Amino acid sequence: IELTADAGAQQVAGTKVYIDSKKVAVTNAPGYILNRDVFDRSLASEAVRSGARLMMCTTAADRTENSVLASQNGSEMEINCRIIIGADGPTSTVGGWIGQRNSKFVKAIQSTVPLSNPLQYCEIYFEPEFNAGYGWVFPKGDVANVGIGVVSTDSNLSELLDRFLERLGREGKISEGEVCSTAGLIPVGGSLPTLVENVMLVGDAAGQTHPISGAGIPQAVVCGKLAGRSAARAVLEEDMSQVTVYEREWTKLYGSNLDHACRKRETMEAEWNGRNFTELIRRSWIGFKEYYRTP
């Protein structure tokens, strides 16, 4: 994938993990924090350069046997197609057409705020009030994405984030002010069937998001490429059996890891209010060796 230079916001050295307000681990794993909006535009531009047609302000409404019914700026249209790929997010419209839609989510909210000093590590925070989820600080130069993700809770999500931001402010990590904020759903129930008739699902729409970390960009990019390649071969070779290659390929890459993470999430949710919180997090978080032991 050809990305513009500004798609990467910052290189990081790894991750620091805090449990119950105490730093318990540092993982050295170099990587990059993305400017997601720039990254998404880069992907769209690359697709157009490769021959895709980008249709803005267009909503897919329904499907027929050989077409998709859509609406663009109030005008109805019918798009003929042999194969449909649904990569339309956690509450996928396309997934709904084939009875495959995520039902289990983490609710997430995030603010971009100024940093008091540059950070070289991402920071992950596990607190009992972050029900079966966690808080994060992802540095992006002079600012950071600060957020929390939790399963259903009696607490107000915005209030939880406000308390987290206040804490980070008291610790001198962030300064006052908010650049922007976002909120959404992260599917954590595991993968769905990704091929039904002539419809394929990819990324969040397919439940390919990691049920513990919530990470989904790598799977979405890789699985999107696999799905597109299988679909193209099926049409070009006039052999619809080629679409089945997608499900086999992505499952081989990610299936066992996602299944393991699903089992870990079930245990984490069941034991969240147990007596040994630290031990539970060590068994549940991908940065600890205990996570990789069989449940």
Automatic annotation (TrEMBL):
The keyword Oxidoreductase belongs to this UniProt entry's keyword annotation: yes
GO-annotated molecular function: oxidoreductase activity
Signal peptide residues on this chain, from the entry's feature table: none
Any matching Pfam family: GGR_cat
Keywords linked to the UniProt accession: Flavoprotein, Lipid biosynthesis, Lipid metabolism, Oxidoreductase, Phospholipid biosynthesis, Phospholipid metabolism
Tagged with keyword Secreted: no
The name this protein goes by in its record: NAD(P)/FAD-dependent oxidoreductase
Gene3D superfamilies: FAD/NAD(P)-binding domain
InterPro entries, per the entry: FAD/NAD-bd_sf (IPR036188), Geranylgeranyl_reductase (IPR050407), GGR_cat (IPR054715)
One Gene Ontology term from the biological process aspect of the record: phospholipid biosynthetic process
Domain Digeranylgeranylglycerophospholipid reductase catalytic residues, every copy: 120-173
Lineage of origin: Bacteria, Bacteria division TA06
